[in-house]
């Protein structure tokens, strides 16, 4: 496993036979249950279950196989035949397991029974559900609610998520950070500021009508592969895609469709990007400034480029923005963008000619110190020609976890002003807390400061996903209480608090049988569509409970009895929880129980989609950037900008294997991708061992050792490697200014030879 990675050319397009063999590989590796592969036929189909991987749309007319390589991997990983039983924990102490890598930990298989940490033997030991709930409830009652955090990773469906957030408020806090706080919180804050909506403005159908797509900082081949179909269709009808990415990501270059037998047999693929701009890390603000500069110049020459009536009726701040663009020289733009004026002018011409444009983006924009400004800059460009709030146009973040957007929609938020507290007061007869809760970064600060005492997690692997792990992990073990609702063992579980519980839950594809029968749950995708999902597989163990039943079990054991708090009734019938969601959010979830079964889901609406701007000025806001580089780093001798990325063989901290097929890399994840010219000037050879050290002014040394240098096509001064292995290098205070999303795409580092 640990041999050095040599970049091999990968000669095949994304999708196609390569992706099918990728599925076969993980299937073998995870020892899938018999018929697990057949289960995939129900994935993302009406009446079936919704993929637990990414948040891409589930179209109304699904393909026969409406799943991608990585969605299939996620399902098959859930349906492994391997079991992580109490006997497993009797054989291995927590200290011993701490030396296992992330892949080995999850390979132990599905958790089968509730477990309690026994400090005297340093082992997790079995515990009954009732005993676990009672003990957690007892602990929570003794802690100050403000010292407790309820984390959620964006997988749990709307019903358990709604009850989880409700429980937090009945208990007495808004400390409800979500994986979103490390991901698209920059969108929730940055996009909201400029267009008044925290989510994408497009519907799935818009992709069939756009003439150009500006595609920034997202890797579709790996992270949302089902988008490749609409991208390919768009290109084939003449839509031009302009990619902005320091790396030449294969999914943006070409695609062969596994569902198109002709493309598969003749090996013909579709070229995706019309133009590929290999920007410097963080160079998007400057690059978009250059595109805007061209568009404004064309308008000056021709007079008919800008959408004057839209700008007059709907926008605020155009003149300040125009002045700032005109005052910024091309040489400055080129220097910060890392691409030439000619390239940016060409992109500007595509934008000006296109009738309908969509801007799509991902972590390359959000995980930056000035990520909110980069998003503001993309919106500036879109506003110039009225490209928000009409068919075939819009601003569309690609969300991460399959229900991460939905969790925020139904109340998992640390920001009380985003939650209809008056409704909670009215429906449930209690006084909700109004004090602002913790973001992820604020929870970690409280942890380091000794102010955090209890931690409950609805999924995820927070201690492994966060910055600054060498400081944070020792502090984690000082917590009074840790309780994890989880499917598999991971690193965060190996940092037990004084009292610690692992509570194993059903996976998305598994049947959720309650007293009134098999239950349906619902999830929301990146396009604000909401669908029913019903699992039919036999659960991995008879002792598993649903996420909803676990949340209700802890809540009931923690809170005093109240006639309006009907935890048992809600667990018996999830339709009752949907009715509560509808009562809390009547405009968005009208007739939820009926509409959730509509093909393609129901759209919960978005004011910006209808050109209603819920901003301070009541209009869409042009913003003037205060910086030209989103990573906010100054050049220093010996300093590189490190990007941390996902491989094609992982889902966040779940590592399926050691190959990154679409980048042609294989064998090890402890690698650093580097420009060959930079390697030469630094005197480094292919495969040479190095240590990366964070290059900042604090006294504290952050390092990752035993990395091997791998030549790769990326801009000079830029390095890339894998999340989560390189997370110890990210300083906790290095985050987006507005949203506190860790800046995992712009980490200042220097290289030390080993
Ligand atoms: N198979 C699979 N699917 C997933 C996930 C997974 O781990 N595996 N994770 C899910 C989650 S939670 C999320 S949030 C999404 C993440 O999906 P993405 O948003 O694609 O996230 P990353 O893989 O981190 O890649 C970010 C991209 O941004 C580019 N980039 C880095 N810095 C810059 C920059 O300064 N400017 C520009 N323009 N580009 C830059 C990188 O080269 C890379 O292509 O995927 C979701 N889907
Ligand atoms: N350096 C760096 N750091 C990053 C990022 C980056 O790009 N670079 N990306 C950030 C992003 S975008 C995100 S979203 C976070 C991800 O952070 P998290 O969401 O916290 O992490 P995951 O790896 O998705 O969580 C995996 C664990 O979830 C549990 N799990 C899996 N399925 C289920 C389920 O159905 N129910 C329950 N209850 N549990 C389940 C399993 O136990 C599994 O081990 O990481 C962030 N950290
Ligand atoms: Mo994410």
Using the coordinates above, name the CATH class of the largest domain.
Answer: Alpha Beta
Oligomer kind = single chain
Q: What is the average of the pLDDT values? A: 93
Computed Rg: 25 Å
Count of extended strands: 33
Please explain how this structure is put together.
Helix 1 (16-30) runs parallel beside helix 3 (69-78) and helix 8 runs parallel beside helix 25 (547-558). This protein is globular. 34% of the residues lie in helices and 17% in strands. Molybdenum atom is lined by residues 179, 183, 400-401.
Protein topology:
Elements: E1 14-15, H1 16-30, H2 36-39, H3 69-78, E2 83-84, H4 86-91, H5 94-97, H6 102-107, E3 110-111, E4 115-118, E5 123-126, H7 129-142, E6 148-152, H8 158-171, H9 185-195, E7 212-216, H10 220-223, H11 228-236, E8 240-244, E9 254-256, H12 261-266, E10 270-271, E11 273-277, H13 284-302, H14 308-314, E12 315-316, H15 318-327, H16 330-337, H17 341-353, E13 357-361, H18 363-366, H19 371-384, E14 394-397, H20 404-409, H21 421-428, H22 440-448, E15 454-458, H23 462-465, H24 469-476, E16 481-486, E17 499-504, E18 513-514, E19 517-518, E20 521-524, E21 529-533, H25 547-558, H26 567-572, H27 574-584, H28 592-595, E22 602-603, E23 620-621, E24 640-645, E25 650-651, E26 654-655, E27 659-660, E28 665-666, E29 671-674, H29 676-682, E30 689-694, E31 703-711, E32 718-722, E33 747-753
Parallel strand pairs: 1-9, 2-3, 6-15, 7-8, 7-13, 8-11, 12-23, 13-14, 15-16, 16-17, 24-32, 29-31
Antiparallel strand pairs: 4-5, 4-17, 9-10, 18-19, 20-21, 21-22, 24-33, 25-26, 27-28, 29-32, 30-31, 30-33
The structure holds ligand MGD (2 copies) and molybdenum atom (MO).
Molybdenum atom is lined by residues 179, 183, 400-401.
